[in-house]
Design a protein that fits this description.
Strand content: 35-45%
Number of helices: 8
Radius of gyration: 24 Å
Distance between the termini: 45 Å
Number of strands: 27
Oligomer: single chain
Helix content: 10-25%
Shape: globular
Strand order of the largest sheet: 1-2-3-6-5
Amino acid sequence: MDNKEINDAIEQIPVPKEKVFNSIARGINQERDRGFGKKKRVFPIVLTTAAILGITVSLGFFNPTMNKVLANTPLIGALFQEFNDSIGVHLASQNAVTELNQSITKNGVTVKLTSAYFDGNMVSITGFVDEEVENGRNEKGEVSFDVNFEHNKGDQDPWLNGKSTDIRKVDNGYKFQWKMVYPYQSFNESFTLPITIHNINGIKGEWNFNIPIQQEENNIIVLNQEEGYLDDEVKISLKEIHTAKASSTLVYETVQKYKGDDISFSKAVDDKGNVYRFGTQKDFENSEQENGYHSTVRTEMTKLNSSATSLTFYPQLDIAVPKAEQLLNEKSFIQKNERLNLGLQVNDIVQNDEKLVVDYHLIGLPKNISQHKLDIIHHNLEYAFWLVDEKYRSNIDPDNPWPPKNHGIPFNKVKMIDKTTAHYQSTFDLNGDERIKDFKLENTILLFDFSTFVSSKDLKPFTVNLPLAKK
């Protein structure tokens, strides 16, 4: 990757405002769903505006037409509007939402499940929990569920991978919506989903429900078209589009040379000019074979227009590189990433009481960087470094990486020394909330993530003719 590509990539990386980060942090504190599932790349510091607004989940917007829809479904439709769920509103207008009335009281707390739908790739459950939940351990206004599906246990429950929870305060309690990515490769369009809530806000109870789930429509368009990119050493095979009542899903296979690279689509455009967006994705059948790393992916997309005869896909490649590692028994060293043509030159490491200061230069950045790009770099550097206890390095889960508790520090404060030479200092708080017990410099590994400075690379679009759908 040359300087121009790096320059363009850095320019594309968005920098959310401080208010947005604070809101995200509050949301994370209120509800930490378990089992986030496999993510090919983890960027704790780069969030797109679309992701923040939940566009990739709902894949739609509310407009005057929605108001007419709500007039026909004032109760259940209004509920989904509260949760900014346009798919739910569409399904409610077509009487494709199962209305429930299952209520259980345990230890003084009543939980009532009120609706369910299954459309394309997404299963939704809505419900209500009464205000007695405020007697639990959480702060007032916070509601957290310890829940499993299909009698699974703990974080190994596949329904928890990609699950989200939305909470709304109402009179006498809280409304909530769970959204789960359907976890299996083959679809069962009608089934009963057992749900067990183990505790709410720390209040134990075992609330057990059996919820009927039905997808009323799932037409399949078989594509079977392959596109290769020799320079990037990746290949895409489009397999099927499944079209439900309010959404569609795309199934495709990828082959890439480098482990961790992620191939997705920024959009698709049909022959009428309609633009389709893509959302939550689920990976299946990840394997290493002779010709590279293989994955089967199912991703949400806007509902396909029945009159479309072709689609032009706009693929993009997320380049993944392993974190550079250096044991801090040396105070100066150089780490380089040949694939990205970037480098880290550490000049000195100094420990002052409870602070550790790393002085360094970034090597290979484009010249004449704008202030906007410098702001991006400065922000990303706060998260690009990790300090990890050498003995606990193997405890980091490669699929969901995070430093082990009391044996890693994932944040630092950055100071620019000289912007013309990309000279910086990063200061780690050795006595902060994230720390390393019995810290010793010679037993600590510095990990540096070069990939935080490179965004997605656009690949050449390609067009697919659409055959007729089949049930």
